[in-house]
Amino acid sequence: MMQDIDRKPKRAIVAAVQRPSVSDLEFEASLTELRQLAKTLGFEVIGRFTQKRAGFDAAAYFGTGKREELRLMREQEAVDVILIDHEISPSQQFNLAKEVGCEVMDRSMVILEIFHRHAASRYARAQVEIARLGYMAPRLREAAKEAGPKDRGRSGTGGRSGGESHGELDRRKIRDRIAELQEELDGMALEQKTQRARRREREGLARVALVGYTNAGKSTLMRALTASEALVADKLFATLDTTVRALHPETVPRVLVSDTVGFIKNLPHGLVASFKSTLDEALEASLLVHVVDASDAGFERQLAVTGEVLAEIGAEDVPRLVVFNKIDRGGDEAALRAKHPGCVVMSAKREGDVAGLREAIVAFFQRGLVRLREQLGETAMIRPRG
Ligand SMILES: Nc1nc2c(ncn2[C@@H]2O[C@H](COP(=O)(O)OP(=O)(O)OP(=O)(O)O)[C@@H](O)[C@H]2O)c(=O)[nH]1
Ligand SMILES: [Mg+2]
Asked: So what's the pLDDT on residue 380?
């Protein structure tokens, strides 16, 4: 799709239809986020294009007149790619690209592309490939439909039987590839499960997972809490694989911390499944540390999105500690404390604050130990949830 990393950056514009139900604030926050996503992909965002409309145009997302305007803008500004801040249908995407005359990517495709570039492990790569193939399949169908019956006459290679079109062949190939990848993933998942069980036996059950919106500072906290080298970057979706390390210096009980993939609104469907398995690790935690970027104007929305995803993956009952991070950059500490009793307000850049968070985590598990000693007499272990 986009292998031209070495060439000069693609000139992109962010574009969206604002429906009446969406407030200006919400609309702008979402567009800003799309800009950040584009930046993460190395695009140069040179402008924006928006329309207020009762709904999306069924044929091509923007209304007829607006499409013409967009075509002119594309010409004048030498735009390479238009980024749409919604998930649009394959035919809307196809029609819009044809009319405007350049590549059109929707929000899902942008996110998938970032995941594709950042996936490092075999496991993450296979998950992202499945999601991408699932996204591409209906779009290839759309292109094949457009190519029409001419397509049937062309000679192909490989096991193509008589009357099968390229579109059908591609679809079959995609299905086979997805099945193959799924099998590979199942194997790896089993392996990971065994590893986790072994670790549980060896290390006990004091487990905490850092979860939250992308770029909230989870990996930064992971580094600070465990003195490890987690990848920290001012990029969206820097972390795709779950990593696990012990709290440092060591504590009683020994507490394992895992860093996890970040969340975002309108996560492509295919990726929700990937999240589920990547987050299995987190689901086994006895405590979720929900990290929120308090300095972000849209933090309330990020808080809500994370809550929704956690519910979707079945983690709503795991005890949760809400951490408002990046308070050194802004945010109203008093208001946060009043609205979210029991929360931690901090900066990952301040040693004292990190120590405070560490104490809060240890205290949680020590309370668990005391409770369990009372229940069981001597065999002191932290009880897994459920
Ligand atoms: N000023 C300030 N910056 C912070 C703080 N915590 C993290 N950052 C910065 O925020 C950016 C994102 O941090 P990460 O730790 O990579 O965020 P993450 O939540 O792991 O992000 P993903 O892996 O993309 O989901 C980095 O540039 C950090 O240096 C903080 O408390 N204050
Ligand atoms: Mg990270």
From this structure: 42
Separation in Å, CA 243 to CA 125, 258, 320: 16, 5, 19
Widest distance between CA atoms in the chain: 79
Amino acid at residue number 222:
M
Q: Which two tokens stand for residue 125?
A: 């790569």
> At residue 293, what is the residue type?
D
Closest C-alpha residue for ligand 1 atom 3: 326
Which pTM does this prediction carry?
Answer: 0.81
| pLDDT at 149 (0 to 100) | 61
Tell which phi-psi region holds residue 314, choosing left (phi > 0), alpha (psi between -120 and 50) or beta.
left
Given the DSSP bridges, would you call strands 44-52 and 287-293 parallel, antiparallel or unpaired?
Answer: unpaired
Which ligand 1 atom lies nearest to the CA of residue 234? 27
Distance (Å) from CA 291 to ligand 1 centroid? 10
147 CA distance to ligand 2 centroid (A)?
Answer: 43
Instruction: Assess whether the C-beta atom of 260 lies below 6 angstroms from ligand 1.
Output: no
Q: Is a pLDDT exceeding 60 seen at residue 14?
A: yes
